[in-house]
Structure to design on (116 residues):
């Protein structure tokens, strides 16, 4: 049924998802797993695509330099992820799990020239 929406609860949010959006999300996660060079090239080739990465399990991942512009990262787990140089311009991070101290530590290390 086209446009059918299944409501599901994720934490305190009630989200609307379709089987197609789940399929697209998996395609986008597969592209992300290829690494930053491949991901950023894919983003340049497809500027109209808004990546669906809602609920993505990205905890502790190295995401340095990834282009997440306009990405849907609702409820994504970004705790302890390496985010230096990642671009989140107009990304939706509603309900995303972040580690503020990690972001601060990486920012400080970058300024001191000690980033990994």
């Amino acid at each position: 049924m086209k446009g059918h929406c299944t409501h599901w609860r994720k934490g305190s949010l009630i989200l609307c998802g379709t089987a197609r959006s789940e399929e697209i999300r998996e395609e986008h996660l597969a592209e992300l797993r290829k690494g930053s060079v491949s991901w950023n090239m894919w983003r340049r080739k497809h500027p109209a695509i808004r990546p669906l990465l809602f609920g993505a399990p990205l905890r502790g991942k190295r995401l340095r330099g990834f282009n997440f512009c306009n990405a849907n990262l609702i409820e994504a787990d970004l705790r302890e992820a390496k985010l230096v140089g990642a671009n989140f311009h107009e990304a939706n991070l509603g309900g995303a799990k972040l580690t503020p101290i990690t972001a601060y530590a990486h920012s400080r290390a970058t300024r001191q020239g000690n980033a990994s």
